[in-house]
Amino acid sequence: MIINDTTLRDGEQAPFVAFNTEEKIAIASALYLAGADELEVGIPAMGGKEQADIKEILALDLPLRIMSWNRATMRDLEASLACGLKAVDLSIPVSDILIDAKFKGDKNRLLRNLEEVLHVSAQEGIFACIGGEDSSRADLGFIKEVMALGHSLGAHRFRYCDTVGIMRPHQIFEHISYLTSLNLLDIEMHTHNDFGMATANAISGLEAGAKSVNTTVIGLGERAGNASFEQVLMSLAHLFGEQRTIDSDALRHLVLLVEKASKQTISSTMPIVGKNIFSHESGIHVNGMIKHEKAYEAFSPQSVGMKRSYPIGKHSGSATLLFHLRAMGYEPENDIIHKMLPQVRQIVTERKKVLNKKELKALFLASKAC
Ligand SMILES: CC(=O)SCCNC(=O)CCNC(=O)[C@H](O)C(C)(C)COP(=O)(O)OP(=O)(O)OC[C@H]1O[C@@H](n2cnc3c(N)ncnc32)[C@H](O)[C@@H]1OP(=O)(O)O
Ligand SMILES: O=C(O)CCC(=O)C(=O)O
């Protein structure tokens, strides 16, 4: 499967996000090191500055396909060609709603535009992906027509876009199974997160036969964002068993870089990257983890450049207190530990903050003394 990351295009379309040139270069390099297979890096039609940034990314000479996003118009395509790009996404709306809004319902004009740009991209020998904007609200018969046209004109891929993020994984599976069964073009998934299903829908599309998937780091993107790079990458490695070597330090570096450059704050429970996802507080979980490292973890913290911890909180049990006190060189009796537990719960509940090790030690010594 191909991860085509669009942090530098759809990711940057997130409200209030704007990367400067240095950030774009750093993100492109970090995406390569973290395991992206292809990058969509911008929109040449935006003008000279965007084009200069794209040229700087191309000058990095990263060993992966670099694409741009374009409306399926000669003007947009020419701007991409002038940047020296060898791969383009050529987007057309495919739903009636968007065809009405943008083309006054004129499907013929839309298809003529597509024909023209595909003809030129074939002449230029570049990789062409047809971006099917709003595919999930489109008639599948029309998508078939677009794909057949693309196939006949040498396009390489069709991007199925759940532009407003309204699909469920089961529906995606049906749509993509049908479109791949046509054997016209490889399918790329582009899924949005309006109902929190972007990654699930992207994965469902891959299971139904899609060959590639658009992602963005920390799920950045329009409105609620896109399928997240780190979630898709880890799913491919751990759930699909793909032979992917994930450089955990490179992944962590990328996430922190994009968090800073986009001025976003990642939630502490965000899959793969949230700072608390390897903090086990519940007593039964800590007890299990001490006996078996995989008891309550789907993958190790080391595999994503993070660390495990056992906070001393309201739900801690004796194994947690013993773990920390033993690490400090104490060997407490059971009755003392059981005397301490209700006190820990009370302190944490009252002040809504876990105990640090110093406080645990003080509580232990006080409990021992009385
Ligand atoms: C679903 C997506 O994410 S698609 C990607 C969207 N990304 C962006 O819009 C970010 C970058 N955009 C921009 O910088 C600007 O919008 C530009 C440079 C692309 C265009 O700017 P402007 O020329 O000022 O046009 P504006 O943004 O107001 O409107 C877009 C125009 O493109 C047309 N358009 C939209 N999609 C397509 C398409 N696939 N094919 C042809 N025309 C299209 C619209 O109908 C509209 O045309 P109109 O001006 O005749 O009404
Ligand atoms: O048309 C494309 O290639 C992608 C457009 C897009 O970003 C979307 O539909 O959400």
From TrEMBL:
Q: Which InterPro entries match?
A: AIPM/Hcit_synth_CS, Aldolase_TIM, LeuA/HCS_post-cat, NifV/FrbC, PYR_CT
Recite the UniProt keywords alphabetically: Nitrogen fixation, Transferase
Return the similarity comment. Belongs to the alpha-IPM synthase/homocitrate synthase family.
Recorded superkingdom:
Bacteria
GO molecular function per UniProt: homocitrate synthase activity
Q: What is this protein called?
A: Homocitrate synthase
Under the heading PROSITE patterns, the entry gives: AIPM_HOMOCIT_SYNTH_1, AIPM_HOMOCIT_SYNTH_2, PYR_CT
Catalytically driven reaction(s): acetyl-CoA + 2-oxoglutarate + H2O = (2R)-homocitrate + CoA + H(+)
Span of domain Pyruvate carboxyltransferase: 1-252
For biological process, the GO terms are: carboxylic acid metabolic process; nitrogen fixation
Q: Which organism is it from?
A: Sulfurospirillum barnesii (strain ATCC 700032 / DSM 10660 / SES-3)
**What's this protein's function?**
This protein is a Fe-Mo-cofactor biosynthetic component.
Q: What is its EC number?
A: 2.3.3.14
